[in-house]
Amino acid sequence: MDLILEGIKKAFWLLITLDPEVMGITILSLKVSGAATLISLFLGIATGTAVALSHFPGRKIVVSLINTGMGLPPVVVGLFVTIFLWRSGPLGFLGVLYTPTAMVVAQSVIATPIVMGITLAAIQQLPRRLRLQILALGATRFQMIWTLIKEAKLPLLAAVMAGFGGVISEIGASIMVGGNIKGYSRVLTTATVMETGKGNFDVAIALSIILLVLTYLINLVLTYVQQRERPR
Amino acid sequence: MTEPGVILEAKNLLVERAGARLLDIPVFSVNKGEVLALIGPNGAGKTTLLLTLSYLMKPRAGELFFSGLRVGSGYLLSDYRRKLAMVFQEALLFDTTVYKNVASGLKFRGMRREEIQTRVTEQLELFGIGHLRDRSARTLSGGEAQRTSLARAFATSPEVLLLDEPFAALDPPTRESLVQDVEQVLRRAHTTTIITTHDRSEALRLSTRIAVMNQGRILQVGTPGEVMYHPVDEFVAAFVGIETIITGEVVRVQAGTFTVSVNGKEIEAVGNAAGGEIVTLCIRPENVTLSCDVFGSGASALNVFHGTITKITAMGLYQKVLIDCGFSLVAYLTNRSMERLALTEGQEINAAFKATGIHVMKIPQTDPAGQSPAC
């Protein structure tokens, strides 16, 4: 019992005094996952909208692949990103393995299908006639697509949250492609694993509290979005 | 090529989806400033025609001309669409304020903010929704939402307005007040309008011309009077509310009138016909009068038949009476006249209708949906 109480006490002390190492890890986590989410938004919303609005042979297979991608195991992503970035791998010449860049790449691969899948569903859920109505009001194709994305803004916000939530709490890929290098590629999850292994529960608890608060904030926003009155 | 006064013209329009022919229209034109009502049952192709005219649905074949220029070569598609505006049965509003909804078409056109403001304010006032300007569109009632949708279409000052059953989803009182407002706006703005409806009273009220559609074809185009009283075939006749449609043979021809034998009964009609010709007679139910006494023989060319009431159906403000007098005859009576006459099923009665009240069709009876010559 002492262990836990002592750990929590020290954890709060680390947080209150803004311990440089804990802060550094947190900021890197936010940067890496934030960048990955941003990249996944561009790729995911663009592709998701394109698939939602088009008809082509094999569309169902593509949609099912996207849906499968939403649950991609981070370890598998980590493995393949590592292979690609390995010195003798296809992208080895970039020399980015075990850097935050590699982590951004891996996390983007995880978040993109999540954003894509939610976008696809969100755009498809809009009334069919809405597209015709927008065009009938004189919109160009680009204006039509932009208007549809704006109409789906609530579910798209959920996509952002789900994507970010997915990568900030992910560990498998980050540790494999980032290497958990102190002060360089160490993030909240990888640090928590390591500190726990070393028996430094105070630091681990402090990191966990930060992760929990972040996750809570994400879910708070998501709940708010979900509980809003549905448009008629 | 295009006649003067014609703003929109379609030639040899053919629309097919999944092997089914949805639309087959050799010629269709809309005159500048007119309100054209497309009427027909569900699935007749009314909405498809509107979507095709606005190029939101691609025809398999055919050409569209706007003010004499061919759409596609004379105009870019988006430029063409900016000359039109369309309102659907559902309001299809954007998830934003009423003001921004009405402004959306103008924003697409890249109009300056001050001008947008002037135009939107004007439309909000015209449709009586000025007080809702900053309300979120999702909190509107059905009628308010459809008003917003109409204001959004009118704000773009379209040269041709396409209305696809804009009142169909509304309850009767809301509908009535909106039809009234739209009627006023159309009268004032003289906007060329094509409106689809399956409610013929709405069509009669708003339109200057009516086109009757069925199975992807236009069966008849004409003034409301022409379509209501001179339908070209049985389908149109039935759709515009003619309940009695009977076929018989011309047995005698007099000057300006002729006599038709139907199941052994003789009906006198006005017009010209040849002896032995097979004709179809249309009698509007409101033109049939009923009496328990014998009709005075004063009125000339009055067809009077003795028959039995086989069925009485309440239709709201009036009642529909089906009479068997050798052939089936339908009459509409107000509830008051029903009370006065105290009619019951099985009762014997005299039914009368004027020879001038009969519309005579001389058409082949084989293909009711086919393009048939006018009578």
Please characterize this protein's 3D structure:
The complex is a heterodimer of chains A (232) and B (375). Chain A has 232 residues and is an all-alpha fold. Chain A has eleven helices and no strands. In chain A, helix 5 packs antiparallel against helix 8 and helix 6 packs across helix 7. The longest helix of chain A is centred in the first third of the chain and has 34 residues. Chain A is globular, with a radius of gyration of 21 Å. The mean pLDDT of chain A is 91. In chain B, a hairpin with a 2-residue loop joins strand 9 and strand 10. The radius of gyration of chain B is 25 Å and the shape is globular. Chain B has 375 residues and is α+β, with helices and mostly antiparallel strands. The C terminus of chain B is likely disordered. Classes of the chains: A mainly alpha (232), B alpha+beta (375). At the A-B interface, helix 6 and helix 7 of A face strand 6, helix 3 and helix 5 of B.
Give a brief outline of the structure:
By secondary structure, chain A is mainly alpha-helical. Chain A contains eleven helices and no strands.
SSE order and pairing:
The complex is a heterodimer of chains A (232) and B (375).
Chain A: H1 2-16, H2 20-53, H3 59-69, H4 74-85, H5 100-125, H6 128-136, H7 141-151, H8 153-168, H9 172-178, H10 188-198, H11 201-227
Helix pairs in contact in A: 1-11, 2-5, 2-8, 3-5, 4-5, 4-9, 5-8, 5-9, 6-7, 8-11, 10-11
Chain B: E1 6-17, E2 20-31, E3 35-39, H1 46-53, E4 61-66, E5 69-70, H2 77-81, E6 84-87, H3 98-108, H4 113-126, H5 142-155, E7 160-164, H6 172-189, E8 192-197, H7 200-206, E9 209-214, E10 217-222, H8 224-229, H9 234-239, E11 244-253, E12 257-262, E13 265-270, E14 278-283, E15 289-291, E16 302-314, E17 318-324, E18 328-334, H10 335-341, E19 348-354, E20 358-361
Parallel strand pairs in B: 3-8, 3-9, 6-7, 7-8
Antiparallel strand pairs in B: 1-2, 1-4, 4-5, 9-10, 11-12, 11-14, 12-13, 14-20, 15-19, 16-17, 16-19, 17-18
Helix pairs in contact in B: 3-4, 3-5, 4-5
